TrEMBL record:
It comes from the Bacteria. Gene3D superfamilies: 2.30.30.790. One of its GO terms (cellular component) is cytosolic large ribosomal subunit. This is Large ribosomal subunit protein bL19.
Length: 231
């Protein structure tokens, strides 16, 4: 591996540490969450010279059919086509772009071509793609999506060493946002999270379960004296 490939691999790993890349191809319907950065003008600061504009980040969903996927490594990209107000709209997304928050496969299509540019000249039923129902499609659709959403407010998971803000947000996408959930992770849960978020064994190496259990024990010990005082 030369120096350029090594640098590209590091950049790809940095993106994969924040989000996963599902298995998809031409014919699949995907939903791409695109990060949009907006600057908001404060009316009070208009008269001030050199006033700093506040930047807000939101995610915009772009859903359509993948008509092409090309390139390799960090230069890999895919083209998504959708019909908006009767007009065909296409966008090309780099697979490892930092401006993509998530890629979700909505439906898997059954096609026999690697490039579906013929869809540009079709409308309505003529542009319909049949859904894949073979064993491979069932296996991909049955892939682990996350936990059942627990009740209550989200907790600060950054108390656990090894979980930063970005990783906490990715865990929330899997409906994991309570310390108790991490304290009760089974071996299967650990394997699923590790594979989905590409953590490379960080859960066991950093002992997330042990840290979470100690945090729960400390919270329980702090609550007991308070209840005894009321009694």
């Amino acid at each position: 591996m030369n120096i350029i490939q090594q640098l590209e691999r590091e950049q790809m790993d940095a993106v994969l540490a924040k989000r996963g890349v599902p298995e998809f191809g031409p014919g699949d319907t995907v939903k791409v969450m695109v990060k949009v950065v907006e600057t908001v003008d404060d009316p009070k600061d208009k008269k001030k010279k050199g006033a700093v504009k506040e930047a807000t980040v939101r995610f915009q969903a772009y859903e359509g059919v993948v008509i092409a996927r090309s390139g390799a490594g960090i230069n890999e990209n895919f083209t998504v086509r959708k019909i908006s107000y009767g007009e065909g709209v296409e966008r090309v997304f780099p697979v490892y772009s930092p401006y993509i928050g998530e890629i979700e496969v909505v439906r898997r299509g059954k096609v026999r071509r690697a490039k579906l540019y013929y869809l540009r000249g079709r409308r309505g039923k003529a542009a319909r793609i049949f859904e894949r129902t073979d064993a491979r499609a069932r296996r991909l659709n049955a892939a682990w999506k996350g936990f059942k959403k627990p009740k209550g407010e989200a907790e600060d998971l950054t108390q656990i060493k090894g979980i930063d803000i970005d990783l906490q947000n990715r865990l929330k996408q899997l409906n994991c946002y309570k310390v108790e959930q991490i304290a009760n992770l089974s071996d299967e849960d650990i394997a699923n999270i590790d594979e989905t978020l590409n953590l490379k064994g960080a859960i066991e190496k950093q002992d997330w379960v042990g840290q979470a259990q100690r945090l729960l024990a400390e919270l329980t010990a702090a609550e007991v004296p308070a209840e005894e005082a009321k009694a």
